[in-house]
Amino acid sequence: MESKITAIAVYTPSNRITNEYFEQFIETNNEWIISRTGIKERRFADKNEFTSDLCVKAAQNLLAENPGTSFNDVDFILVATTSADQVMPSMASQIQNRLNIQNCGCLDIMAACAGFVYGLILAKGMIASGTHKKVLVFGAEALSKFTDFHDRTSCILFGDGAGVALVEPSERSKIFNAVTGSDGSHGKDLYLSQHASVINGEAIESNGKIHQNGKVVFKWAIQTVSVKVKELLAKNSLTLDDLDWIILHSANMRIIEGVAAEIGAPMDKMLSSIEYFGNTSSASIPLAWNIAKNAGKIKPGNKILMLGFGGGLTFAGVIIEA
Ligand code: UT7
Fold this sequence. Notes:
By secondary structure, this protein is α/β, with parallel strands linked by helices. Helix content is about 30%, strand content about 25%. It binds oxa(dethia)-CoA. It is found in: Cytoplasm.
């Protein structure tokens, strides 16, 4: 059985945080943040708003924006997140309950900023195997709850938001071949640990906040993503010209520009959510999709390459038809 994305929607908290906000408590400024990252603002969830809340609101938006769509026969929920409300129960189980979806498998995916694409790949596999027919894939984060606001190299980056895609059977495949991979030797270059204080045998600080070795991740991202985009195109017998849009995880506009230069793609093919939402990890790809959809850019039949990368370090890429 082939599959396709039949709907996509997002939710972002209303609380807008401009770059000037950070000038109050760390040594930074608007110009540095914009020039080094491309971020102008981001959204933070309220004190009593958590990742599961953002997911439920994104799902409600999907229903509101797609009349005739129902979650009655959804038979699996996948939630990609690194900022779950708690370790157990899963976000997926809470969403199942709050959306009142019965007879539904539930699973959270921990693949950091690559999680949403991993989710799409898993959903395609479930439908292909015939075990499931209607899968909700969320990418959602309340990263502000896990941000170290004393660390100026990372706190200016992160934002909160949620995206959700509905994946259903299709007569013709609209979710094509994928690439996935990982280099766990870089584990301590991007981590969030609440308990263990060792990664790969090396001591780490485990204070429940995000730690990032920005320079190392930046270099790894440009090199790895450039190679994997080319590999993904080859795996699908496509060229850059066959793609309408490329959505890389929005970690830093300079990474997007670096990869575009490396693969020879024009910047107007690159979609992102970095400018107004910052780095929202697993939510960044659906947020970028939604911005482009609202701007009238993404049209039915468009071919879109999506590639997420981050903590692991891991990556996942897939080409889809809108
Ligand atoms: O989402 C998962 C994947 N994540 C990524 O892909 C993130 C990858 N990394 C990055 O995006 C970038 O490395 C950062 C945005 C995190 C940092 O940018 P950078 O251009 O690599 O900066 P840097 O770490 O090389 O720092 C340059 C200078 C340093 O000062 P000195 O040592 O040159 O005097 C920093 O101390 O900028 C300083 N700096 C800041 N200055 C003002 C670092 N953070 C700030 C800040 N405001 N917020």
